[in-house]
Amino acid sequence: MKRVGIIGAGTMGTGIAQVAATYDYRVKLYDAKASALEHAKDSLRSILSRLVEKGKITPAARLDILTNISFVTRLGDLEDSELIIEAIVEDLNVKKGIFTELDNCVSNNCIVASNTSSLSISSIASAFKRPDRCIGIHFFNPAPLMRLVEIIPAVQTSIEVISKAEKIIQSWGKTVVRAKDTPGFIVNRVARPFYGEALRIYDEGIADVPTIDYSLKKLGGFKMGPFELMDFIGNDVNYAVTESVFNAFFCDPRYKPSFTQKRLAEAGFLGRKSGKGYYNYDENAPVKEPIKDKKLNGQIFNRILVMLINEAADAVFWNIASSSDIDLAMIKGVNYPKGLLQWADEVGINWVVEEMDKLFDRYREERYRCSPILRDMLKDNKTFFNGTK
Q1: Average pLDDT estimate for 99-108
Q2: Residue 104's pLDDT band (cuts 50, 70, 90)
Q3: SS3 assignment for the chain
Q4: What angle, rounded to 10 degrees, do the helices at 349-363 and 340-347 form?
Q5: pLDDT tens digits, residue range 232-275?
Q6: Cβ contacts of 255 within 8 Å, gap of 6 or more
Q7: Which of 370, 340, 195, 163 is nearest to 265 (CA)?
Q8: Across-strand partners of 137?
Q9: b or e along 370-383 (b: 16 or more beta carbons within 10 Å of the residue's beta carbon)?
Q10: pLDDT digits over 280-302, tens only?
Q11: Pick from 209, 246, 244: nearest CA to 229
Q12: What is the average pLDDT score of the chain?
């Protein structure tokens, strides 16, 4: 399989096209807007030139990559593709509309994939007459740099398509994990407490933004604190994903969005891209120092860590993915310092259960319910990497 079609010439679609072309796949990048294709073409040339300057690729490799990509404005031009990856706006109806259109112009052997980060693959696939050919292939941004790709079979997807999709993406130098078709898949589900519990701690007035970020970086080894990361992602984007996951889980309180983030998004305080979010990015803005109190920092870190571990454990409980794939996803997908389930084994399952029960006893909210798998493991004296799932 050497012919790939990419739908959507935005940052993600262009990045995926670059990845495929780098591994000598013939790529057709489609967008209905000629201006979007021109922008993508200019962006690719600039990115590849910088890679040459840095010695990452040779001038010949740059030319090969650019030669491997053609830019098209007709969906029908993708008819000879053996794999098509849709990377357009996160709107279920729009994605289903594209899949319906593809029915009329692709071969019976074409694999059709969505790069959605949280929408139902099964629902998207239902718009295609041959849903057994459909699958989720979720890249992380920026696609050329991020190693992780989540493969998400729909309930309709054939075993053959799953196997072929995984082999193709692995041939592009990516680390593949397989996830069940549930909201957020692995990374966007398991990572929710990193943001949500940090916001909860802030909303309760326990600590300010710099102190919470300091606690996670100093004690946990995270490269960025939760507020720094939300500002980097964009408060509008992060809030939208949180709201989507919350609604998709039938308003489970574990994923409840924060009014603080909602208000910042409404005010246009989006983070780095707007110049202001949880932090002020004006070069003349005063810098507030974190409170470096060992007890306070420890409480903050432990609370967020245990919520992350509980979420990862619950993903194992519900067969979202294997323990090894969950840990791999969090390391490769969001640069966590170590796998959360490995972390659980190190701190002790008993500690995790005790800390979750303390939170539940204090708040009496379902948000803080301990995953059943943790209680079972404690009872049976098991850990995640000695034979449990």
Answers
A1: 91
A2: confident
A3: CCEEEEECCCHHHHHHHHHHHHCCCEEEEECCCHHHHHHHHHHHHHHHHHHHHCCCCCHHHHHHHHHHEEEECCHHHHCCCCEEEECCCCCHHHHHHHHHHHCCCCCCCCEEEECCCCCCHHHHHCCCCCHHHEEEEEECCCCCCCCEEEEEECCCCCHHHHHHHHHHHHHCCCEEEECCCCCCCCHHHHCHHHHHHHHHHHHCCCCCHHHHHHHHHHHHCCCCCHHHHHHHHCHHHHHHHHHHHHHHCCCCHHHCCCHHHHHHHHHCCCECCCCECCCECCCCCCCCCCCCCHHHHHHHHHHHHHHHHHHHHHHHHCCCCCHHHHHHHHHHHHCCCCCHHHHHHHHCHHHHHHHHHHHHHHHCCHHHCCCHHHHHHHHHCCCCCCCCC
A4: 100
A5: 999 999 999 899 899 999 999 999 999 999 999 999 999 999 99
A6: 192, 196, 242, 245, 246, 249
A7: 195
A8: 151
A9: bbebbeebbeeebb
A10: 999 999 999 999 999 999 999 99
A11: 209
A12: 96
pTM exceeding the 0.90 threshold for the entire prediction: yes
**Contact of 55 with 73, CB cutoff 8 Å:** no
Q: How confident is the model at residue 1 (pLDDT cuts 50, 70, 90)?
A: low
Instruction: Point out the residues that are catalytic.
Output: 117, 138, 150, 188
Give me the pLDDT at residue 350, please. Answer: 97
**Percentage of the chain modeled with pLDDT above 90:** 95
Radius of gyration of the CA atoms of the chain, in A: 22
Q: pLDDT at position 386, please?
A: 77
Q: Does residue 389 surpass a pLDDT of 60?
A: no
Q: Please check the confidence at residue 387 and state whether its pLDDT lies above 80.
A: no
The residues that bridge with 27 in the sheet, in sequence order, are 4, 69
Determine the distance from the C-alpha atom of residue 57 to the mean position of all C-alpha atoms in its chain, rounded to a whole number.
27
Spatial contact of 40 and 84, defined as CB atoms under 8 Å apart? no
Q: In what order do the strands lie in the sheet with 111-114?
A: 69-72, 26-30, 3-7, 83-86, 111-114, 134-139, 148-153, 175-178
